[in-house]
Structures are given as C-alpha cells and as structure tokens.
Amino acid sequence: MGARQDHEEALRGLPVDRWEGYLTEHSGLPGPRGNLELLAVVGDLAPAAQVLAWAGSSDEYLACVGTAGLGRLVLEGDRGRVAALARAARDERWRVREGVAMALQRIGDHDPPLLRSVTSAWADGPALVQRAVVAGLCEPRLLRTSEATTHALTTLDAITAGLAALAPERRRDPDVRVLRQGLGYGWSVVVAAAPRTGFAALERWALVDDPDVRWVLRENLRKARLGRADPARTAALAESVS
Hints:
Elements: H1 3-12, H2 19-25, H3 36-45, H4 48-55, H5 60-75, H6 81-88, H7 94-110, H8 112-122, H9 127-137, H10 146-165, H11 174-193, H12 195-205, H13 211-221, H14 224-229, H15 231-240
C-alpha cells in the first residue's frame, strides 16, 4: 500500500475532529517538503466546512491544505471560492500560495475550460496572482491538448509583456521577484509540451532587450526539458541571450 492509500485509510478511520491532529503529526514540517500525498487525500475527503476552516488557519500547513481543497469546492459548484483563491494567491506564506497552484491544477484535471476561464481572468491581476496563474497552468499533465498549450502560451506571453512594462524600481519588489521566478521555469514546461509554437515564442522574446525578460529566458533555457525537446534551438537561443 502506498503513502496516499495509507493516509486515506487512516483518515477514514478517524472522526473528522481528530483529522487536524493527524495532519499536524504527518505534515512533514518542519522540513524541506510538506506532505503532498496527505494534502491530496484531504482535498478529496474533507467536508467543505472543514476545508474552509483550514483555509483560514494561522497554521501554514493547515492553511495550505485548506486552500488546495478549495479547488474541489469550486469543482463541486461553489464558484464563489475562486475569489478566495485569488486572495490566497497574495498570502505572504509561500506554502499557502502553493496551495492555490494545487487548487488550480485540481480544477484543470477535471474541468480544463474552467481553468482557462479562471486563469484568463487572473492574468492581468497583481504579480502574485499572475504567479499563481503560471504555477497553475505550467504542469505537464495539464498540457496534453492544443487548447491547453495555446492558452498557456498566450497567457505566458501576456504576463511576460506585463513584466517587461514595469518600471525598473517596481521590479525590485518581492512580489515581482516571485513572479519572475515562476516565469523562470514555467515557459520551459509549456514549450516542452508544444515545441513548434513554444520555441517560436521564445525566439520572439529573445529579440527583446529587457534584463528581466532575458533572465527569464536564460533560466528556462537551462532546463533539461528544453534541450530534450530541441537541442539545436535551445543552444542557439541560449547563445543569443547570454
């Protein structure tokens, strides 16, 4: 039995009012990696009221669990929780922001058009909300159709253009740095899923003389997935932005 199945069996054997203790005990924190398998199980099983309570918790792991679980509530028809996810995307706690990305990915697993609708609405939002869009869309399992890759490339184009339009002093702000880091890997995921159109987009951006855009390109071009997708174009682009 795998870890996920172990957690599912354990939680089903506990009353809900004892789940919080189980989550705290098995969170994997403090440590470099929270227990994502447990988080996914709780997202499947927890009653809606408990998901909402944890989403508002001061405990970072519980808040991450609850925030990720909001994706299921959205899928179940509670569209008002999309606004709660947008607020959580601006949370100062990075694990909570990761919970937003996981919620978006859960939505994308089951309702791709809804994910495209939400991320389109968020794409011109604050920097941390844009970062959630990048993290939510740039997941290989969600990029298996032309609709998904076209939307992801169009969205990354728009967000990158927004970064390039920012005043130099604004780019030093922490939220913009977080967004730039997200773009620094997100492009490579989408381009690897759609090399023909993706590399063409990178080649257009390589012509833009902007320090942050060039940083984003260099970071993506270091990713092995791009070298596997098209070694020659990756090498040529890397040389052009070095």
